[in-house]
Specification:
Blueprint (H helix, E strand, L loop, with lengths): L1 H10 L4 H19 L9 H20 L5 H18 L3 H28 L2 H17 L3 H11 L9 H15 L1
Helix pairs in contact: 1-8, 2-3, 2-4, 3-4, 3-5, 4-5, 5-8
Length: 175
């Protein structure tokens, strides 16, 4: 996850070469636990549940153009490993609260970016447009199309970074 966050910061992209092995290795760990490895409390079912919780938390944001697929897949990988290591139901709470921590970190970074740039009026206008789209659009596709048309005006935040900070920070908090 740290490598994915660094690459996301640098290139605004989380590569599949990192995310797919992260997801699949979590599943393999869960499967190995089912066959007696005992490297964690969860099996393949917990790893899959964690993967799909990670997908479910970020899919709505991705669907409306709010983040890239790499961030979603990175979260799915985190979910697969946490599921395989902690098992059900503990992994579900860990994934959810780590996601919340990542969201808070992302908000703090976004606020710092806004303060450093000093373009408060533009940011307020962008938020107003986005919220208006959420309530006025006919479909998710319509929201995504409008978001893509505004993309050139965005000050982008590589969201893999705050997600990684939130996930790892929450795990350190648990320890």
């Amino acid at each position: 996850m740290i490598a994915a966050a660094i690459i996301d910061w640098w290139k605004f992209k989380v590569p599949n070469k990192l995310t797919f092995p992260l997801i699949i290795s979590g599943w393999v760990l869960g499967l190995a636990n089912n066959f007696g490895l005992e490297a964690g409390a969860g099996g393949i079912g917990s790893a899959l549940a964690g993967t799909f919780l990670g997908l479910g938390l970020l899919l709505p944001i991705y669907a409306i153009g709010g983040m890239g697929a790499g961030d979603v897949k990175m979260t799915m990988g985190f979910g697969s490993w946490i599921g395989a290591f902690y098992g059900l139901p503990e992994c579900l709470g860990i994934i959810f609260w780590a996601f919340c921590a990542g969201t808070i970190v992302g908000g703090v970074i976004a606020m710092a970016m806004i303060l450093l740039r000093g373009q408060y009026g533009k940011n307020i206008l962008h938020v107003r447009e986005i919220v208006g789209d959420l309530f006025a659009a006919q479909s998710l596709g319509d929201i995504a199309d409008k978001a893509n048309r505004r993309r050139s005006r965005w000050h982008r935040l590589p969201y893999g970074v705050p997600l990684c900070i939130g996930f790892l920070g929450y795990l350190f908090f648990l320890m």
